[in-house]
Amino acid sequence: MNYSFRKKNKIVKYIIIHYTGMKNLKLAYQKLSDSNSKVSAHYLITRKGVIYNLLCPKLKAWHAGKSSWKNYENINDLSIGIELENKGHEFGYSNFTNKQYNSLKNVILFLKSNFYIKDKNVLYHSDIAPNRKKDPGEKFFLNRIGVRREKHNNKHKEIQDINKMLSLYGFNKMYIKNYKKYCIKSVKRTLNYKRISASISKKFINDFYNLLFN
Questions:
Q1: pTM
Q2: 154: pLDDT confidence band, cut at 50, 70 and 90?
C-alpha cells in the first residue's frame, strides 16, 4: 500500500470522489493495494455497496495526483480519497448503483463528523485536476448522498463573467488560464450534462450561475 505521513500543518479539509476506471473490481483492488502502482485511496466502494477501508484517513493516500483547488496545491496533503467501482469513460461508463450511493453517504457522514469537513469541500477528481481527469463524471449525482455544496453570498450575484465564475467555483488561476475548456467540461459534469463539450451557451451560463448562487 502506498501512503505518506501527513505533515503536522496539513489538516484534512477535503473529500475527493473518484471512480476506479478499471475493467473490473479485482483489477481496481489490486492496483490500489500494489506498492508499485504509485496510487492508493482511503476507501473503495463496490457496486454492491461493500466498503473497503484501504488506508487510515489520518495517513496521506496517493489518489489526487497533480492537483489544486482554490489557493491550495497538492490536494493529497489535505484530503481523503474515495474510489467508486466503475469502469469509467475508457472501459464502459455506467450509472452508479443505489447500494454505492447508500454506502458512500454513510462513509461521508462519518468523515464529515470526524474531520469536520463541510459540504462545500466534498469535491470530484475532475474538479481538482480538470485537465487530466473526468471522474466521477456526469453520471454521478451529488444530491444522492445528501451533500449540497454551499452557495456563494449575494455580493457576487451580479457576476456572469465566465472566468470569474470558474474562479468562484474553485479552479485556480493556472487552470483557468491554461485549461479553461477542461474547467468548463468539469462544471458540465457536475451539472450532469449528457453531452460534454467546451462550448459556452446561454443555457450553460444560466445553469452555472444557478449552481453557484441559487
A1: 0.96
A2: low
